[in-house]
Design the sequence.
């Protein structure tokens, strides 16, 4: 069985789904040396478009690769036109047996079996948080992708429930496989290394951290209002650090920040490379994630793995990730969020309890388990269909 994994999100550094594509590919490769390795002769290969992006890093650079010289928008339009013209695109995948679509995109295939990862349906539930063209494309094509796929992987129970609710998808077709957390996310104890990272990203001595793209769905405006309330009633020793790239409609938040009375207490650290991110987490006193909607939510999980107390939104899938290891708050209430931050920062016993619970919670998520269960889905769609053909 030759498995082509769409690596395009990792090549193009697409935040969460880029992390998913890369970590999954690494873990699938590592399965070869595990206790339950893939069948003899099975092969993992990388498929991606846009060769101008970042190339795979070791050990993924040693894998067979299928590269198409298509930029993002032309490639999506080609898939759309081929889909409605009913023109199979199997030839672009060479002799692959299974194609894993990780980039919200599934070409029409006749011979190749397919698996589609569904992250969320935010374009339906929060359409205002998407660019108009992306929203149009997703509304038009997502039902087709989900029907076309041999199997659908949902990254949370919440996303599965949304797929059943909005599209009437057969529940037996959807496999809920949570994401994992890499072993590099762990508590930081080396003071010298932490000091170096603090200097590199201009981190204050004591700070509250949030990680994510600056865009409306991340709900940073509510976080800013909550931080203003916190500073008005607390001792003012903690600053707010925001890590992440500026996404679409970031101007709305940035304008609010520019006119805020706490604007000089907020640090926009920008994007942080994966190699330094665990240390940035480890330097924080508190991690806050007030997102309006997430298909899963990796940052709270990574923060817990680094031993940082977590406050997260009670919306969508985040309770599945955080469980009782963090405080969950209404993402629409700046007052509730401010009260939770004040409570955690002012209670050393609570902070210690959240650290211990977070570490235990994070240990139950691993990319190796994600890869193992994903590989089982590949087997299901390939061998089950082969058996049907054989019987026919």
Sequence:
């Amino acid at each position: 069985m030759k498995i082509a994994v769409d690596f395009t999100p990792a090549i193009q550094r697409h935040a969460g789904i880029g992390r998913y594509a890369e970590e999954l590919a690494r873990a699938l490769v590592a399965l070869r040396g595990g206790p339950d390795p893939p069948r003899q002769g099975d092969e993992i290969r990388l498929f991606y478009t846009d060769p101008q992006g970042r190339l795979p890093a070791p050990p993924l650079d040693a894998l067979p690769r299928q590269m198409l010289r298509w930029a993002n928008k032309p490639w999506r339009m080609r898939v759309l036109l081929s889909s409605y013209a009913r023109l199979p695109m199997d030839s672009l995948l060479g002799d692959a047996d299974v194609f894993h679509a990780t980039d919200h995109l599934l070409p029409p295939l006749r011979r190749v079996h397919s698996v589609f990862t569904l992250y969320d349906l935010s374009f339906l539930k929060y359409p205002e948080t998407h660019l108009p063209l992306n929203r149009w494309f997703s509304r038009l094509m997502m039902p087709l992708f989900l029907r076309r796929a041999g199997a659908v992987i949902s990254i949370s129970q919440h996303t599965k429930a949304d797929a059943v609710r909005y599209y009437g998808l057969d529940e037996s077709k959807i496999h809920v496989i949570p994401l994992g957390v890499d072993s590099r996310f762990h508590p930081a104890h080396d003071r010298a290394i932490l000091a170096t990272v603090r200097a590199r990203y201009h981190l204050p001595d004591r700070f509250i951290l949030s990680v994510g793209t600056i865009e409306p769905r991340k709900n940073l405006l509510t976080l800013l209002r909550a931080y203003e309330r916190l500073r008005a009633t607390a001792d003012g020793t903690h600053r707010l650090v925001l890590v992440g790239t500026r996404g679409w409609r970031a101007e709305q938040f940035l304008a609010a920040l520019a006119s805020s009375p706490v604007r000089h207490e907020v640090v926009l650290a920008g994007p942080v490379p994966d190699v330094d991110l665990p240390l940035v987490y480890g330097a924080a006193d508190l991690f806050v994630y007030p997102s309006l909607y997430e298909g899963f939510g990796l940052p709270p999980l990574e923060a817990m793995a680094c031993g940082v107390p977590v406050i997260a939104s009670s919306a969508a899938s985040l309770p599945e990730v955080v469980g009782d290891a963090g405080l969950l708050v209404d993402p629409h209430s700046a007052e509730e969020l401010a009260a939770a931050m004040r409570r955690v920062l002012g209670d050393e016993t609570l902070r210690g309890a959240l650290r211990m619970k977070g570490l235990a919670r994070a240990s139950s998520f691993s990319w190796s388990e994600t890869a193992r269960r994903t590989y089982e889905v590949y087997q299901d769609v390939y061998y089950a269909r082969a058996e049907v053909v054989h019987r026919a």
User: Anything to note?
Assistant: DSSP finds 15 helices and 13 strands in the chain.
